[in-house]
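During the reporting period, our protein records have gained a structure token line. One record among many is quoted in full directly below:
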Amino acid sequence: MTGTNGSRPHRVLTPELQATWLPDDALRRLSAYKVLAAYDSNQAGELAALAGNEQAAERREFGDPSTFVDTTLAHLLGTSQQIIVPGAEHAHDDDATPEAVAAAEAQQRLRDWAEAELLPLRMQATERKAVLLGDGLYLLAWDPAMGRVRVKSHDPGFYFPVFEDDADPGDYPNRVHLAWEIPEDPHRNVKARVRRITYELGPISPITRSHVDHDGRDTRRHVLDDAGNQLLAIGDRFIPETGQVERVYPWAPDKPSRTTCYLTDAEWFLDDLRHGQSLDNLPLDKAHFRTRSDGEVLHRLDLRIDFIPLIHIANTVSDGEHFGQSSLAKVMQALDELAETDTDSARASATTGAPIIGLAGARAEVDRVTGRSQPLAVEPGTVFQLADGGRMDVLDTSRQLAELRARVEEIRDRAAVNARLPAVSLGTVDPSDVPSGYALQLSLGPLDSLVGSMRLARAHKYALLFKMVQRIHQAGHAPGWPAGPHFPARLVFGPHTPADRASVLDDVVKGVSASVLSLETGIRMLQEAGYPIPEAKEEVQRILSRMSDREKGNSGARVLMPSE
């Protein structure tokens, strides 16, 4: 990451990041992504070798960074993920309000959508990028053929938000680019080019129609009526006092909006770009706009929503920066030390398993063709005839190997401590070595704080995702998604550490029986311990119903006893 040309990264390390269209403030971020990806795939030594460290190519890397990332991801996501709409738990009450019933219906719609879109798999892909690289990205788009919102996971290296000079990095940007370079393909006679997809918020404009010429360039004109006036889309209204166009969105029927989101999808040949033309100001006269399946040109296409359908996931809580920090960032030096120690250990094990032997007084065989002495081969059952005073010396490196193995464990434990991943969470501790459950709980304290901060950084982002999903369904007039304000929904992660289920069950039974715990609280404790209880409210109703039936049966038996 050391810059040799100002603040730009090492050009040998990341040669493809020297493209002229990339913003200067994105170079170090993209270089960091590549370095982190190399650690994850056991290729950090290869990158170091490209940067001039010839010995780094021989470095042994055994997947410790990937283990750290996968362990952190598993604890972050927990045993399950569930969409919760507040108030939905009261939908089955005897005095349930219409709001509770509507919340339960919205919750079920979101859960059905998440199941159809395989949201847990998308989360695995996106969250692993966020844990490893520091950032993840979701893209939402309406699919009229399937009649639902599609969610995709994008590489954060394609993500380029545009902020105003005085904007807060934590605010949502009004203009976002997704861009990447497409390499040259001589076999297909395809030139190298860059593709840029832009989402931009702007004022609503009258209807326009696009026309693409033979060079793939777009000419967009306003559509006029017979009187020569500009036509407005259905539901739009022109305000003469302000000269702007207003639109009523289905999620805010009482609050007209003057903002919409425009989509532009275009490509530029690298030969057409000049020095100084960065990603945000590429020349439109050189652009080749892409077209939709129905022939609509994707140049400032009105999406008829007033938000950008992108959700950026930061791995850490924002401290004034828009982008997050990788979970490996604080332990990369320890990972380097671990790889170097593994390399030394591998070399020492080679000399221990096949030791260096020195012979004195032995006669080597001579090659009859060349007349040169042949090297001695040491194999099981080999006998050497030594002259008087001859001897054999063996170089013993077993002590050094034992020290190196102990050093490996020391560095691994140090890295786990700094990454806030206790050894018990990595599976490197024998359960019999834990003195008590209280000691185990104390050892998991750093992990609890790590998972808590990571989930806090994501809480409002997933609430925003579910808000956008509801609104895009409303904008697409999807069946079963009524107009009106959206329901606030949140994503609840399951427990991230194993629980003593038998102990929890015993505590619940004793607490409920002694009336120091309510039945609802006891059910929630069992849910958190991992018992397969989908809905606490329904489980309470089933328990109460069975208790009532049992009491009725016992009461009937007592009535019959005197008459006998």
The first strand starts at residue 81 and ends at 84.
